[in-house]
Structures are given as structure tokens and as C-alpha cells.
Amino acid sequence: MVPAWLLLLFLSVAQVTLETEDGRVLWGPQPVLVRVKDENDQVPHFSQFIYRVQLSQGTRPGIPFLFLEASDKDEPGTANSDLRFYILNQAPAQPSRDMFQLEPRLGALALSPEGSTSLDQAAEGPYQLLVQVKDMGDQASGHQATATIDVSIVENTWVPLDPIHLAENLKVPYPHHIAQVHWSGRDVRYHLESQPPGPFDVDAEGTLHVTGELDREAQAEYLLQVQAQNTRGEDYTEPLELRVVVADENDNAPVCPLRDSPVSIPELSPPGTEVTRLSAEDMDAPGSPNSHIVYQLLSPEPEEGADGRAFELDFTSGSVTLGDAPLRAAQNILLRVMAADRGGAEGSLSSTCEVAVTITDINDHAPEFTVSQIEPVSLPEDAEPGTLVATLMATDADLEPAFRLMDFAIEAGDVEGTFGLDWEPDSSHVELRLLKNLSYEAASSHKLVVVVRSVAELVGPGPGPGATATVTVLVEKLVPPPKLDQESYEASVPVSTPAGSLLLTIQPSDPISSPLRFSLVNDSEGWLCIKEVSGEVHIARPLQGAQPGDMYTVLVEARYEDEPTLSTSATLVIRFLKAPSAWAPTLNPVPTRHLCTPRQDHGVVISGPGEDPDLAGGHGPYSFALGPNPTVRRDWHLQALNGSHAYLTLALHWVEPREHIVPVVVSHDAQTWQLLIRVIVCRCNMEGQCMRKVGRMKGMPTKLSAVGILVGTLMAIGIFLIFIFTHLTLARKKDLDQPVESVPLKAAV
Fold it and tell me: Is pTM beyond 0.85 here?
């Protein structure tokens, strides 16, 4: 049925045309809208004259449980169709007259706070409400209509739910019914919320379902909230809570923790030392048999013939400890342990845990020298500081590089710090070097004790005998090469000098030096010879072929008697002179004389040529001089007394006691000849006379005979004493063998 106002509106739309009398259109047609003003001539109507509704106890106040519907045919949006709802009467009026409240604009009927409290205490009713709908909004005037609402009070069926237990991994068709809720009022819609979100749902009948399998390890419990709501989504009452507990099933095997690095155990750790403690985790319910884990050692197995196991395992705690079997440093072991739930009972789940164990090295080995007694090392006395004496090698049985670092020291035999050690920090050998100059007189040998120690602290027993090494250093005495009293020698001899003539004596510069042995080198003509011990140079054979004014050079070599490798040499230059004339004077023979050392006031008188009538006519005096040998000139002094005699004495306070041949050169005009003066130098007594060695006197016993006499005397005395003691023993035995009565009594005085 079309409202009257809409019909009027349609009828008011027309077109206006302006025409002349003859029908000609001057303007138009133009539409003309005629608006018809609405009048409040329509009465509002309820959708029902009587409303019947059920109201459940427990409904919260202000929550609508009925929405009234009414209509007004006046123009919408105007005051004529602006409707308001009111409660005119409540019957019965107990326990309160205002048990209900009606929202004027929406027509939403709800319990008042007072009515909600009354219904919760006791069920009342039924109630009948007379309600009115009026147009014109809040104005006093307007059309109205009434309706009746029958309210039935029903018992509250919205009761708490007991927790339910659902098995995880349940194999049933889904969705699966788990619970039922019911709101006893009308126009209810159910809503479900899960904390945390889970596979749950509720239908329009209040039936709760689980829509899929549950996993206890993912979520052990859920809290479901079920709400009873009106059509506007408002809760009639407080939500119901349902706790869903997921029952555990043994669907998880124990899980071993991951290890990033091996477990390190020092070697020589005592039995019982804990290696590791396994803590496998089972995702099944804690405290239940499904998560009760026990352990079993799978490997390593005990070695064949071994007294015990290398590792022990506590099957309940998972503690792995060291056993009795020894372990070696740097040994890598893989422990395999089975972890089983349900206490290892039938139906249990298990997994294998692996633990890598490394036996770390400790510093339990002291370093030792490979050779503890070094062969004696000889060093010359003039060895330079820094000279390498010996190299010692040491070893360390430890494996860790830090434990193989060694420290060396000289423990004994080097009080003066003559020697030192040199080594690299990570080296296993040490060099023994000389730091100071050696002295044979201070010490002819050095016995050095070198020790090696570990840089890191040593664990266990201390160093053994192998940690020391003995080095014996022998000092070689420095013997300088022999030195002669002059670097070169010269002698002048007539070409007619006979064989056997003494030219000069080669002597050492130090008279108390070691004995020398002399020899001639490059004596091509064989004119000379030298005495090996005394160093006297003689004419070996006639000087045939030598010419006056010529020079003849030979090399004199001297060596130590006890050190033949040490030698020296000097040149000997012979200058040949013209042979003397046939009338050369004869020289008075000089007898052998003795001179004392230390020097006394004595000497030897040397005479010139004897009286010769051929020389009386104008020959001048003779001159005397010592031979050219520097040693002779050093040891002797020659003084001319007159033209025919000279006086020979010792020039030094001390001259070696022995026979000396002193050459004296006698010259007259251009003629020269040589006298050989034989002088014996000896030690003198108080009277200035030579002391001579005395031989053994005849009739005096020797040492051997004296010892023999002494031994014979002692033996005779011993035999005599043995005879006496034997005699006394036999006499006493005879007395003891006689009867007591036959022995006379000794009278006491």
C-alpha cells in the first residue's frame, strides 16, 4: 500500500505550457513541482499486539533481551515518524516496580539493575508489561499505540563447566564433540574464544567441538570462553570458562643437547672424575613416565683383557665419570649413550647421545738430555769469547707445545761466569758458549753441570737424573812459539877456517824456556853444521870454493823439544874473509878455567901471540874482541889488559852452570884469527870454589838393602814372640789337666 503522502507527491508533479489563443506554444512545457507538506495524520503501530519472551536468571542489567518493532506511515525523518517507546505498566510490581527498562529510541527491553539483582536472588514472574509507542519524538503531543509483553522467568542454565581432558593425537572424526552449553533465554547467539588460539568451535546450539588433533608439546592447556550474546553481540551474562587439558601420549623421544666442542679431560685424572652430565630432554609431560629418562653406555666397550672400563655411567643421573682404565694424552674418544624414556620399559622411545671427549696433555714429563755425559771438550787457552763449546739436546715427552718449552741453566762448575748458554725459546737444543777468556794457570779444566727445566709448572714427580748433563772442558795451555835471542845472525870467517871451528851459538831469548832443538835449512854447500841441543854452529868441512867478500846465507830453525809443532827460524849470514898469511903468529894455549855463578871477582886471562923473532921488527900490538854471537856478548865481558893479553869475565850475575866455548877474535893489522876459550861455569861454595857432585860412597847401604834389613829384623822379633806365647799356652793346659788335690795351695801372705 503506497502511503498517501507519496501519492500526493506524485500527483503534484505537472508540466506548465503557455499558449496563444490559437494554440501556439509561447513557453514551455516546463515541469512544476508541487511539494505537499506532511501532516501527522498517521498513528504508529507495533509489529505485534502481544510479545512473548523468556528471560533467564543471570541476565546482566542493561542487556536487551527483546527489541520492540513499530512503524509510522508519516514522512520518514520527520517528527511525525520519530517514535519513542515507554513502559506504561508492570504487573506484578514485585519485588520492584522498576524491574525492567526500555530504551526509548530503539525499543530495547532489558532488566534494570534492581530487577537483575531481584531475579538472581529468587525466581519471580511471569511479568506482563504494557508498553506504548508515540510519534512526534519527545514532544508531548502525538499519536500513540500500545502493546503487551508477556515475560516468562526461566531458571539459569548457564552453569560453569568442569575441565575436560583430551588425548593428544586423538584419531577420531573431526569436528569432535567435547562439551555442551545452553542459555535458557531467547534470541541467543553463542561465541567462543580460545586462549591461546586453538582448534575449537561452538555451533548455534551451544555444542563445543575440537576441530583437529591436539599436540601437548605445542600446547598443554587451553582456556575456552563461551559467550551467550543477543542479536547486537552483547553478552547476556558472564562468559563460561572451560579448561581443556591435553593428555600426554608418549610421542616424543628424548632429545640430546647439542655440543659445539669436545669435553676436555686432563690426563692422569683420578677415577671418579666427572667427564660430563647428560641432560636429555623429553617433550612429553614432565614428571610422567613418558618423560622418565634412563641412560645406557653403548660405547666405548672395555678393551679385551682390560681390568676395568675407561668410563662409568650413572643410568639415572646421566653422569659420566672416569673409570679405572688409563687414558693417554691426545686420545680422542666418542662416547655413545642411549637415552630412553618410560624408564627403559617396553614401548619406550630412545635416542643416542654422542659426546666427544679429548684427553688433554698435562705437564707431567720433565725434559731430559739425550746425552747426560758429554765427551771432554778441549779449548785452547786463547779461545775467543763466544766460541761454541758444545751443543746439548733435550727432549720432552709431553705433547702440548707450551709444556715442551724448556729453560736451561749452568747449575755447578762455573763460579766465575766463564761460560754461558744460548737457546731459542721454542728450541730443544742449547749451545754452551765461552763468555770470558780462559786461563790455564787459574783452571786447567772445568766440569760444568747443565740442567734443563720445564718452563711451565711440572705436575707430578720432579726432574730425574736425565735433567742434568755434565760437560768437561779441558783448557789447552797456550805455548808461544820459541823466540831466539836475535832475529838474524852474522859471522865473519876466513876462507881458510878449518872444519870443526865454532862460528857462533844460537840461543833462546829466554834462558829458562823449554829446551830447543836446532837444525839448519838450505845449507846447500854443506859447509855448516849445528848441534841439535846446544845450538853451536861449526864449520862442517873445508870452505872450498868460498871467496873472500862472498856471503853465504842459511836458515836456522828452532823447535820445542816437547812441542815439535811450535818453531821459529832466523837467518845466518856468513861473510868470508881473506885467509891469513903463512906467518900468522901462534897463540898461547889457554887452559880450561872454572868461573863461579853467581858472579865472583874472577876471570880468565887470555894471552896474545908468543915471542917470535920474525915479528919483532915493527909488528904492532894485538886487539881482542868477543865473537859476533849476541848471546856471547850478552853473557861475557872481555877487557884488554895490554897489547898481548885480555881479561875474560862473566857479564851477567847469573849464567847457566855448564861448559861454555867463548869465541875470541884476535886481530893484528889486516889479519884476523879466532881463539876458542873453554870455560866451565859452576856453582861455588863459600870459598869461591866449584861444588862438584859426589857419588855413592863404598860400604854405605842402599835403600833396598836398608829395607831388607828392617823387614828381617821385624820377622825375627815376630817368631820369637810366637815361641813364647806357645810355650805359655802349653804350660797352662798341663796345669788344668792335673787333679785338684794334687795342686798345692798357695799360702796367703
Answer: no
